[in-house]
Recover the amino acids of this structure.
């Protein structure tokens, strides 16, 4: 019974941490793109904004999952490691976004959420986010 309670508490703790990191990922997309992200996705049906957010959340989720799987048996050490790797992954995703922004004409954030269709640059940013997540996952393991 104690194992079930301990594991349940650990699940809640990791779940809360993962959710907090995904909220941070949401805020990163909110800051790097013009306009209100929620309005663009749920009211305007902006596919570019939805792609950016979806891939960011998938990347953060992969990093958090890998950090949990590879974490030490000690819950506090595991939570700390997961938090550190999650934040580092998000920081590297931000750096990748701005590196692509420097290499492309115009403001990347505006290009990605402008118009009704997903701009081809959106797929480049999506691939970069997934690649960063994979690299961080590899580093964690």
């Amino acid at each position: 019974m104690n194992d079930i309670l301990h594991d349940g508490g650990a699940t809640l703790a990791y779940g809360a941490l993962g959710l907090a990191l995904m909220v941070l990922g949401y805020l990163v997309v909110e800051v790097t793109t013009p306009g209100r992200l929620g309005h663009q996705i749920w009211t305007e049906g902006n596919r570019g904004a939805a792609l950016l957010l979806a891939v960011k959340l998938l990347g953060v989720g992969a990093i958090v999952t890998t950090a949990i799987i590879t974490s030490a048996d000690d819950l506090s050490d595991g939570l700390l490691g997961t938090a550190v790797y999650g934040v580092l992954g998000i920081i590297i995703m931000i750096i990748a976004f701005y590196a692509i922004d420097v290499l492309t004409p115009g403001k990347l954030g505006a290009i990605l959420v402008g118009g009704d269709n997903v701009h081809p640059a959106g797929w480049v940013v999506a691939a970069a986010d997934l690649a960063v997540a994979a690299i961080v996952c590899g580093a964690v393991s």
Remarks:
- DSSP finds six helices and no strands in the chain.
- The radius of gyration is 17 Å.
